[in-house]
């Protein structure tokens, strides 16, 4: 498959009164055409900063991309100027935000918000752009688009606003769509509709999607591949089956175990991950997750674990995969999901620097 | 079954009564809450589940109907003294741990506010001891007492909210989406804490939420609301295994599960109120299909459901 986006060793930091916050600490991944990559993690794990860096929406200063490359179709966008980025935003990459009320302009008609990008990027005439806006609203499932196009955001319900946001994002046929928790503010029934809509549009337009969420149910529904982030780093990455049926990182175990499953025993305690995420002004020595990890080895407090490869597509950053590490049993709730996947290597392989 | 702690009878909460924009947020719901149980209340935003909670605790005055707490009506005319008594027995935990704590008060003062109002501590020392004890109960330390809310994370703030609710030794706690604003790993911590407190103190919860898997985990029974009405009420497992009302079926079919294989094959059901095809004047009410499992339906539907499920 063709690679659309390659992120290599991305580092993003913010200058604050309390010191430099290293929000993203060496993130690498790639995204193929027509693929959906889900990024999961808690608040503060750097998932939103990573995606905003791809759009270069990080306010600079205080933010700064302090290292790494973001290759879009092989072209590095990190050194690009604001003016050059304007040509990319909306046209090559667009974004859907979590809160459809605060991210739409309340003083502008929905139609004008959709046509704004079309007139700017594609030199469309006003009338053509308006027709395209109506067509887009119909595409995202808004009834009576001819009337809706002249309405304001407050006249739309939450789900309808999110549909309108998707229409704005798709207006110029972007190759990459970044969806930052697009359904978190919505009800389950509306969420299901929006997810179906996104998948349907993806198959029609062959867009690649980066989907940021902390809802593992949504991940299982939309993702082809999953990256799990913790404290500014990707700690595990693999296909959706590898992450859900053969997770290797204790943090991924923790996430999976902390969710009640519909057929689980309700009298048992949920396996919560104790404590809170580390402060990234002073990232802890060694593995950032060690302090909350009941599986932590002595080396976790000393040295950062390297990335190990478990299959062609499956990577995990934990010392537990080292040949000298003791054998550990994942928590009960995770063991129940484990199954043997055919693609797994016989032994985890240490990934050499530079990958 | 255990003793009834709370009886809600035909509760109605209408806003803007008599004006064209009248909203029937809660429109005649009836249910009981038993001592020591957790009743989950689920439904879409705008279905009236939060309004129900807020009306029960009398943050709103009910338009019609009764809320009986241990046999006494919560609403209706009351002296300040009687009201105070109720307020001690019923407490609330709010959704937004950022907005529901006063940013200008220290944690100790937030927690002790109820203690002060009800005069539960005889001197300053006893008051602080009670605060320390409460902080420990919810998994925070003594040192946190003199800090301000902004110094805490979302999960910790929700713990402060729980400590505040516990300060007056209530019997009944209404938790209005207490975990929705928290991260997954933190949600489990708060839910475990709530379950532990229930075991230790024999608390009764009304747990309002839209995250259905968490609701099933914490609740003994679950009520499903749709447009101001309770449409189904059943024991938690029963509701998940045998959802009877078409709206409940549609709601359950929309939850994404953390399992890619079932997700690939999941079919979502949609719900349109027109499927019922109710004739004019048909009597709609909660009817018991199987023991403890109530569905809001007509006489005809009742017979059909009964034939289908009663074995």
Automatic annotation (TrEMBL), chain A:
Its main location: membrane. Gene3D superfamilies: P-loop containing nucleotide triphosphate hydrolases. It holds the Pfam family oligo_HPY. Keywords: ATP-binding, Cell membrane, Membrane, Nucleotide-binding, Transport. GO terms for biological process: peptide transport. SUPFAM superfamilies: P-loop containing nucleoside triphosphate hydrolases. Residues 7-256 form the ABC transporter domain. InterPro entries: AAA+_ATPase (IPR003593), ABC_Ni/Peptide_Import (IPR050388), ABC_transporter-like_ATP-bd (IPR003439), ABC_transporter-like_CS (IPR017871), Oligopep_ABC_C (IPR013563), P-loop_NTPase (IPR027417). GO terms for cellular component: plasma membrane. Belongs to the ABC transporter superfamily. This is Oligopeptide transport system ATP-binding protein. It comes from Cytobacillus oceanisediminis.
Automatic annotation (TrEMBL), chain B:
GO terms for biological process: peptide transport; transmembrane transport. The keyword Transport applies. InterPro entries: AAA+_ATPase (IPR003593), ABC_transp_ATP-bind (IPR050319), ABC_transporter-like_ATP-bd (IPR003439), ABC_transporter-like_CS (IPR017871), Oligopep_ABC_C (IPR013563), P-loop_NTPase (IPR027417). Keywords: ATP-binding, Nucleotide-binding, Transport. GO terms for molecular function: ATP binding; ATP hydrolysis activity. CDD domains: ABC_NikE_OppD_transporters (cd03257). It holds the Pfam family oligo_HPY. Residues 6-252 form the ABC transporter domain. PANTHER family: D,D-DIPEPTIDE TRANSPORT ATP-BINDING PROTEIN DDPF-RELATED, TRANSPORT ATP-BINDING PROTEIN. Belongs to the ABC transporter superfamily. This is Oligopeptide transport system ATP-binding protein. It comes from Cytobacillus oceanisediminis.
């Amino acid at each position: 498959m063709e690679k659309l986006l390659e992120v290599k060793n991305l580092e993003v930091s913010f200058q604050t009164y309390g010191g430099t916050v290293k929000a993203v600490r060496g993130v690498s991944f790639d995204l193929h055409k027509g693929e959906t990559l889900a990024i999961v993690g808690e608040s503060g794990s750097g998932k939103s900063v990573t995606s905003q860096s791809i759009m270069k929406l990080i306010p600079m200063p205080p933010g700064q991309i302090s290292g790494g490359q973001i290759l879009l179709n092989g072209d590095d966008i990190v050194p690009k100027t604001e003016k050059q980025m304007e040509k990319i935003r909306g046209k090559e990459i667009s974004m859907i935000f979590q809160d459809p009320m605060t991210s739409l302009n309340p003083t502008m008609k929905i139609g004008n918000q959709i046509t704004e990008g079309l007139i700017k990027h594609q030199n469309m005439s006003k009338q053509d752009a308006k027709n395209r806006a109506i067509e887009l609203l119909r595409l995202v499932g808004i009834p009576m688009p001819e009337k809706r196009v002249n309405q304001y955001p407050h006249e739309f319900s939450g789900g309808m606003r999110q549909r309108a946001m998707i229409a704005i994002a798709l207006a110029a046929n972007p190759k990459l769509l970044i969806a930052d928790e697009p359904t978190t503010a919505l009800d389950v029934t509306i969420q299901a509709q929006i997810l179906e809509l996104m998948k349907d549009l993806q198959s029609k337009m062959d867009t690649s999607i980066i989907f940021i969420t902390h809802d593992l149910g949504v991940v299982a529904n939309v993702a082809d591949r999953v990256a799990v982030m913790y404290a500014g780093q990707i700690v595990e990455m693999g296909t959706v089956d590898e992450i859900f049926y053969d997770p290797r990182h204790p943090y991924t175990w923790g996430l999976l175990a902390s969710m009640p499953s519909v057929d689980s025993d309700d009298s048992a305690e949920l396996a919560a991950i104790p404590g809170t995420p580390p402060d990234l002004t002073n990232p802890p020595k060694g593995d950032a997750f060690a302090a909350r990890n009941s599986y932590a080895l002595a080396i976790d407090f000393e040295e950062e674990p390297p990335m190990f490869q478990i299959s062609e597509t499956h990577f995990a950053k934990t010392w537990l995969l080292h040949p000298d590490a003791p054998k550990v049993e994942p928590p009960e709730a995770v063991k129940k999901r484990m199954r043997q996947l055919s693609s797994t290597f016989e032994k985890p392989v240490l990934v050499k620097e530079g990958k | 079954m255990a003793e009834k702690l709370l009886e809600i009878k035909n509760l109605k909460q209408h806003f803007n009564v008599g004006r064209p924009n009248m909203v029937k947020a809660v429109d005649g719901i009836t249910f009981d809450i038993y001592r020591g149980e957790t009743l989950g209340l689920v439904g879409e935003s705008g279905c009236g589940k939060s309004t129900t909670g807020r009306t029960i605790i009398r943050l709103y005055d009910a338009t019609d109907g009764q809320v009986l707490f241990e046999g006494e009506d919560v609403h209706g005319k009351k002296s300040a003294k009687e009201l105070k008594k109720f307020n001690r027995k019923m407490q609330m935990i709010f959704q937004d741990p950022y907005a529901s704590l006063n940013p200008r008060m220290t944690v100790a003062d937030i927690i002790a506010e109820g203690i002060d109002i009800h005069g539960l501590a005889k001197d300053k020392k006893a008051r602080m001891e009670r605060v320390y004890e409460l902080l420990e109960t919810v998994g925070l330390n003594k040192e946190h007492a003199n800090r301000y809310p902004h110094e805490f994370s979302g999960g910790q703030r929700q713990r402060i909210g729980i400590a505040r609710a516990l300060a007056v030794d209530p019997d009944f706690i209404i938790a209005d989406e207490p975990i929705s604003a928290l991260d997954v790993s933190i949600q489990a911590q708060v839910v475990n804490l709530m379950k532990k407190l229930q075991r230790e103190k024999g608390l009764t919860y009304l747990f309002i939420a839209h995250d259905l898997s968490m609701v099933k985990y914490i609740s003994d029974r679950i009520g499903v609301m749709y447009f101001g009405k309770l449409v189904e009420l059943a024991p938690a497992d029963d509701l998940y295994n045998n959802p009877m009302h078409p709206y409940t079926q549609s709601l359950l079919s929309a939850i994404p599960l953390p399992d890619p294989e079932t997700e690939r094959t999941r079919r979502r059901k949609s719900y349109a109120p027109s499927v019922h095809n109710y004739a004019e004047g048909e009597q709609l009410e909660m009817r018991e299909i199987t023991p403890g499992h109530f569905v809001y339906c007509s006489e005809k539907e009742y017979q059909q459901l009964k034939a289908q499920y009663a074995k």
